[in-house]
């Protein structure tokens, strides 16, 4: 790495940050696997209260070292200052969440220790017999990992920190699907393993599956009855703390709620205009989108859709590289994949390992479908793939040696990344890539989803009043049921997707607002930089400079990219 020790000896902030990454990988082998650390492949973390406290103690020690590093010669240089700001903000936010006991009630349909255990297998190397032997060891580690998770949830019950009942019911259903009726997800995952290890992998998969069964039964028979009647919303105090964690900023939640409504009204007007070009007699944009489901451009077949999405990203890279971005060869590589069964309904992205031995990948959950309307995929893959998540997170990995591994990996701020990906959708619209009314209406529908997320995520968790100018239940106060009804009536998504979305918001309070609020920061930063440079403003240079700064919370992001 290019980070250097100051002339006075001791570590500078970037070195403190990277030492934290090394220590974290020892405690959290799942993080190690995502970073491409081969030694992590056969292990899983300790999710018990003791394991959680070990991670917290590491954060506390790191903050002490950071204070010392900032005071050293060179500790206040621009590169060191950016890293120090991120490290302090992230660790402080994480400690606030830990100390409030959020890790003792971590049940979610998308992101929890349970999901991390399953998902890490999809990015664990499988190229050699040694890789598969490590997978067998990791499979045998599943029972202890899930037992630790269960111990944390049990501790939460004792401290009157329950998870939401709706999250619990959903996770029980997910576990049923992963366990299967004939063969489990783990059994199917090990099918491509080498014949030499077939017996070992089969037995290890059975051990891991048995742990899923035990956890499912405990959730059903013990935990679910214990949390019955607990709220599915978090309230203002918890929401503010969680929103800080996901957004890297102390937000004015009432202003953000009002902003969500202003975007709703703006987007609704644009959607009506585009829908009129497709189906002039449509009573609403979603009637036109429903018509497109049957009569619009679509791709038939799961594998055909995967290939189509790959070509969409490849074409975007060829068109954008050299014009609006300057991409290294290894950043140009991205893979389209089909998501394993039992995931949440939304597509997602996994970043490359630091050495790029594992490329960035987009994942499409099929939800049992074999036909996929194009309007619903194009802007989504601009978001998940290119120029969205892939260009940002792969560029971070590409410049990790000139920043710090912390800034480009575990220090990621959700709203920064999701805001960039939503900005990327808008950029492709600005550049004319949405070539017909179908695709542009799909893009606007995706934007509308993100505006509604701000409204209902804040609205239902804070139980706010619906404004008088709302077309939906004006004057009433938000509930999860109203949130689901509102999203269903203002979205092209099917009912199971809508339900999965609202359950996601309940289990990850404060995360879903980061898309729109993050996009607003990226747009404001671009306009501030444009105003500074005037006619000399170069969008390609600004994009690459902004993407090469690594992670920052929203407050720090705005100041940094405005000054580029």
Descriptive account of the structure:
The chain folds into 2 domains: 13-233, no CATH class; 242-515, no CATH class. It is built from 23 helices and 5 strands. It has a 3-stranded mixed sheet with strand order 2-4-3. A two-stranded antiparallel sheet has the order 1-5. The chain is mainly α and 564 residues long.
List segments where confidence is low: pLDDT < 50 over at least 5 consecutive residues: 4-8
The coarse overall form would be: globular
Count of helical stretches: 23
**Overall average pLDDT:** 95
Number of strands: 5
**How large is the radius of gyration?**
23 Å
Order of helices and strands: HHHHHHHHHHHHEHEEEEHHHHHHHHHH
Major β-sheet annotation:
3 strands, mixed
Instruction: Classify the beta-strand content into a percent band.
Output: under 5%
Tally of distinct domains: 2
Content-based structural category: mainly alpha
Strand order in the sheet with the most strands: 2-4-3
Distance between the termini: 24 Å
| Residues in helix, % | 55-70%
Pfam families: DUF885
Protein name: DUF885 domain-containing protein
Features:
mainly alpha; DUF885 domain-containing protein; 5 strands; 23 helices; DUF885; 564 residues; 2 domains; three-stranded mixed sheet; 62% helix; two-stranded antiparallel sheet
């Amino acid at each position: 790495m290019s980070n250097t020790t100051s002339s006075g000896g001791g570590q500078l902030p970037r070195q403190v940050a990277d030492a934290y990454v090394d220590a974290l990988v020892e405690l959290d082998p799942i993080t190690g696997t995502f970073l491409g650390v081969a030694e992590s492949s056969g292990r899983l973390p300790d999710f018990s209260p003791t394991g959680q406290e070990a991670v917290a103690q590491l954060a506390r020690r790191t903050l002490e070292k950071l204070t010392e590093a900032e005071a050293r010669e060179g500790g206040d240089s621009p590169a060191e200052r950016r890293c120090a700001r991120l490290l302090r903000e992230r660790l402080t936010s994480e400690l606030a969440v830990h100390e409030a006991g959020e890790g003792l009630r971590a049940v979610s349909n998308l992101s929890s220790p349970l999901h991390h255990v399953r998902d890490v297998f999809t990015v664990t190397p499988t190229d050699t017999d040694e890789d598969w032997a490590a997978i067998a060891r990791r499979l045998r580690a599943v029972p202890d990992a899930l037992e630790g998770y269960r111990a944390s949830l049990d501790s939460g019950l004792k401290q009157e920190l329950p998870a939401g009942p709706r999250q619990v019911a959903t996770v029980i259903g997910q576990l049923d699907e992963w366990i299967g009726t004939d063969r489990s997800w783990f059994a199917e995952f090990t099918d491509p393993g080498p014949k030499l290890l077939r017996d070992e992998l089969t037995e290890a998969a059975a051990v891991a599956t048995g742990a899923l069964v035990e956890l499912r039964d405990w959730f059903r028979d013990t935990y679910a009855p214990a949390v019955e009647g607990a709220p599915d919303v978090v309230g203002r105090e918890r929401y503010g703390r969680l929103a800080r964690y996901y957004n890297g900023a102390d937000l004015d939640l009432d202003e953000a709620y009002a902003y969500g409504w202003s975007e709703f009204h703006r987007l609704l007007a644009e959607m009506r205009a585009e829908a009129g070009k497709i189906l002039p007699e449509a009573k609403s944009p979603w009637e036109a989108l429903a018509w497109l489901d049957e009569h619009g451009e679509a791709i038939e077949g799961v594998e055909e859709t995967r290939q189509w999405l790959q070509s969409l990203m490849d074409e975007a890279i060829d068109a954008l590289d050299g014009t609006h971005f300057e991409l290294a060869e290894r950043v140009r590589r991205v893979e389209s994949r089909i998501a394993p069964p039992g995931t949440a309904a939304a597509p997602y992205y996994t970043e490359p390992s630091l050495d790029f031995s594992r490329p960035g990948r987009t994942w499409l959950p099929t939800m049992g479908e074999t036909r996929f309307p194009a309007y619903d995929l194009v802007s989504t893959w601009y978001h998940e793939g290119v120029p969205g998540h892939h260009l940002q997170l792969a560029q971070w990995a590409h410049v990790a040696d000139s920043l710090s591994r912390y800034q480009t990996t575990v220090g990621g701020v959700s709203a920064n990344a999701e805001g960039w990906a939503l900005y990327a959708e808008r950029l492709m619209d600005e550049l004319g890539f949405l070539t017909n009314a179908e695709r542009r209406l799909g893009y606007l529908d995706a934007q509308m989803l993100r505006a509604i997320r701000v409204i209902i995520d804040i609205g239902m968790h804070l139980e706010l009043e619906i404004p008088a100018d709302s077309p939906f239940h004006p004057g009433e106060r938000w509930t999860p049921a109203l949130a689901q009804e509102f999203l269903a009536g203002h979205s092209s998504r099917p009912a199971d997707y809508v339900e999965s979305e609202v359950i996601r918001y309940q289990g990850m309070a404060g995360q879903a607002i980061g898309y729109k609020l993050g996009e607003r920061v990226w747009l404001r930063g671009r306009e501030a930089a444009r105003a500074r440079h005037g006619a000399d403003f170069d969008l390609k240079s600004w994009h690459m400079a902004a993407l090469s700064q690594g992670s920052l919370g929203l407050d720090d992001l705005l100041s940094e990219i405005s000054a580029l």
